[in-house]
Specification:
By secondary structure, the chain is mainly beta. The protein contains three helices and 13 strands, in the order αββββββββββααβββ. Strand 2 and strand 3 form a beta hairpin.
Length: 248
């Protein structure tokens, strides 16, 4: 947990520094706690603290882990933006209690360049690795419907993400060198492109005019071919996030 917290803290510090050079800012700051299941063999449920920071200017915006710029003036109906996103690998071999998996290479985080378009309730995002970590890309589609109810706002959502072969290979594949290092206990594996479908519910409760409590749950269903990987033991995972957010 400490490593993930450090990464997010460094990003938050960088973004905070960037905000000091801007004016007419609208944004929020907070702290979230997340508990999520892993699909990797021998990895227990992951618990981490995530600093939350967002900022919205006329064109420039920050929503961790994205830093973006609106290419056209955004409206309630549509928005078009481009920017950079910090993509966590989501898998550290040292987190597994499987001794063979512990001998695999670390999966590093990556920097992705993205383009994002929202039309009404539907948002689309395509992101390409520019850090040379895996040279892959993903395409994400999502739709969510805000439902106000007193001091609560409920936002049910569904999403779909297609992950390219190169990115899937980095996340789920095993090279021959890695396999040899495990004396063949883990077979070499070349992954095809994969996908994940998700359903979620985010709820926001207004504690004060500027302070909100957020609670979110999400269920992920990966494509069947994810299970072909020798380092994966399930194709479903759940996560829950809760925290306090202050708006300014």
């Amino acid at each position: 947990m400490e490593l993930h917290f450090l990464k997010y803290s460094l990003i938050s510090a960088f973004i905070t520094l960037s905000l000091t050079t801007t004016v007419k800012a609208d944004g929020s700051v907070g702290l979230l706690g997340a508990v999520s299941e892993s699909i990797y063999k021998g990895v227990e449920t992951d618990t981490r603290l995530i600093p939350n920071l967002s900022y919205k200017g006329e064109r420039f915006y920050v929503t961790i882990p994205d830093i973006g710029y609106h290419l056209i003036p955004q409206t309630k109906m549509q928005a078009l933006s481009a920017g950079l996103s910090y993509q966590t690998a989501g898998f550290d071999p040292d987190d597994s209690d499987n001794s063979a998996i512990q001998q695999l290479n670390d999966r590093d985080d990556s920097i992705m360049a993205f383009a994002k378009y929202r039309l009404g309730l539907l948002s689309t995002k395509i992101a390409q690795d520019i850090s040379g970590t895996h040279d892959g890309y993903y395409l994400h589609l999502a739709i969510g419907l805000p439902i106000p109810n007193g001091n609560w706002v409920f936002i049910p959502s569904i999403s779909y993400q297609y992950t390219s072969r190169k990115m899937s290979q980095y996340l789920y594949g095993v090279s021959q060198t890695e396999s040899d290092r495990t004396s063949g206990n883990i077979a070499a594996f070349n992954s095809d492109a994969t996908s994940v479908s998700s359903i979620g519910l985010r709820s926001i409760y207004k504690l004060t005019p500027n302070t909100n409590f957020m609670l979110a749950v999400k269920h992920n269903q990966y494509s069947d071919n994810v299970l072909d990987s020798p380092i994966i033991d399930q194709k479903r995972s759940n996560s829950i996030i809760a925290g306090i957010i202050y708006n300014f």
